[in-house]
Amino acid sequence: MEKRQMIVLWAGIAAIVLICLFPPRHYDRSCGDYRTDTGSLLARLVAVCAVTGGLIYTLKDKEEKIKKPESKQNKPEDVR
């Protein structure tokens, strides 16, 4: 993994930790207390994971993206 990919990965992990530490809340009038908005929390986590994964994929080397598996016919075999 390249340095740029590692930076994106750690930034994504930091964002996930911050989202979990400070989840979205809303005031519930029926009980007079703040509740965690689970749907919004999950949507934010999925969005951060998708963006982080997309950036890591985008920052791959062009050579890694283009590499095709070599066929067995092109490889010399060790014959004994």
Radius of gyration (CA) equals 22 Å
Which regions contain 5 or more consecutive residues with pLDDT less than 50? Answer: none
**What topology, given as strand order, has the largest sheet?**
1-2
Average pLDDT reading: 86
> How many β-strand stretches?
2
Proportion of residues in helical segments? 55-70%
The computed structural class is mainly alpha
Query: What string gives the helices and strands in order?
Result: HEEHH
Main β sheet profile: 2 strands, antiparallel
* Percent of residues in β-strands: 5-15%
Shape: elongated
Which key phrases capture this entry?
single chain, 80 residues, mainly alpha, two-stranded antiparallel sheet, 3 helices, 10% strand
Can you characterise this structure?
- The chain has helices at about 5-20, 40-60, 60-65, and strands spanning about 25-30, 35.
- It has a two-stranded antiparallel ribbon with strand order 1-2.
- By secondary structure, it is mainly alpha-helical.
- It has one domain (about 5-60).
- The radius of gyration is 22 Å and the shape is elongated.
Concise synopsis of the structure shown:
The protein has helices at residues 3-21, 38-58, 62-66; strands spanning 25-28, 33-36. It has 80 residues and is mainly α. The longest helix is centred in the middle third of the chain and has 21 residues, at 38-58.
Topology:
Elements: H1 3-21, E1 25-28, E2 33-36, H2 38-58, H3 62-66
Antiparallel strand pairs: 1-2
Helix pairs in contact: 1-2
